[in-house]
Amino acid sequence: MQDARTEQDLLIETFDGRARRRENRRAFFTAALGVAAVGGAFAYADPALAQTSVTDSDVLNFALNLEYLEAQFYLYAVNGTGLTSDLTASGGGSAGGTVTGGAQVSFTTDPLVGAYAREIAADELAHVKFLRTALGSAAVAMPNINISGDANGPFTAAARAAKVVDPTSGIFNPYASPTDFLLGAFIFEDVGVTAYKGAAPLLSNKTFLEAAAGILAVEAYHAAIVRTTLYSKGVQGLIDATEQIAAARDALDGTPTEDKVRGIAPNDDQGIAPSGSGDTLTANLAPLNSNGLAFSRTPGQVLNIVYLNAGTATMGGFFPNGVNGNIKSTT
């Protein structure tokens, strides 16, 4: 017999029955940790999150913070303006934060990249709208975001750490050209893929799990577009830059014990440098482990990267005052 419940009923069950779900989730995480201890292949254990009884709305709000960041970056690059205020306020109506930086990119010299940018911007806007609708009154407001391309901005800080520019005086402005835009996008996209993959097992509601898997797939498409376009330019300097950025991200997110089935590894990042030569030349457009699986990052690891801080932190980098919601610390 077809389930007659409406989507509204589903949301009410998901977000209002917190006391019962909280107990269920405690049991879930206890089981997950136990299975992980004996080598369970599909258990996801993040003790810091397990101890705080993470809810589905916590996980979706964590994702919403990341979507706010990506949407603002791409919308500014395409239009010179970002999200409207009605899309940055909390579900309860509290005003959203501010955006520092952001500028329109001139794609005249590379209209194909411009077409890609417009598609990705539209996708990220749709993700923000979707997550806000799913969360309803539980949606967090957009936090303060810094996407500046100036000397004191997070893009420059990331590029200096990766030695893509001079570590002391170099400036990286992702809005200066289509190629610089691609490198700026490269900083975000692979992180988004690993973030959704790592957070998906924390969701207990299968409807939201399927939706998260759908967003993960889109983020993977975006990452593939960026990686393929950079690779196709055939510029060794760009290939080297992706390797340096990947190494810098790897240095920020710690060294978890490797689990090849779950896609967890101490080295969970790769640039686009090919292997082999001549007839054996093989591209590296999909960063995967030896089992052909995408990598996972815990929410804490993701925050290490967007905060540009390898230690314990609750703010910094692209989120100068931290993200909003219950998942906000790197630990």
From TrEMBL:
<keyword id="KW-0472">Membrane</keyword>
<keyword id="KW-1133">Transmembrane helix</keyword>
<dbReference type="InterPro" id="IPR009078">
    <property type="entry name" value="Ferritin-like_SF"/>
</dbReference>
<dbReference type="InterPro" id="IPR052965">
    <property type="entry name" value="Pigment-catalase-like"/>
</dbReference>
<feature type="transmembrane region" description="Helical">
    <location>
        <begin position="27"/>
        <end position="45"/>
    </location>
</feature>
<keyword id="KW-0812">Transmembrane</keyword>
<protein>
    <recommendedName>
        <fullName>Ferritin-like domain-containing protein</fullName>
    </recommendedName>
</protein>
<feature type="region of interest" description="Disordered">
    <location>
        <begin position="256"/>
        <end position="277"/>
    </location>
</feature>
<dbReference type="Pfam" id="PF13668">
    <property type="entry name" value="Ferritin_2"/>
</dbReference>
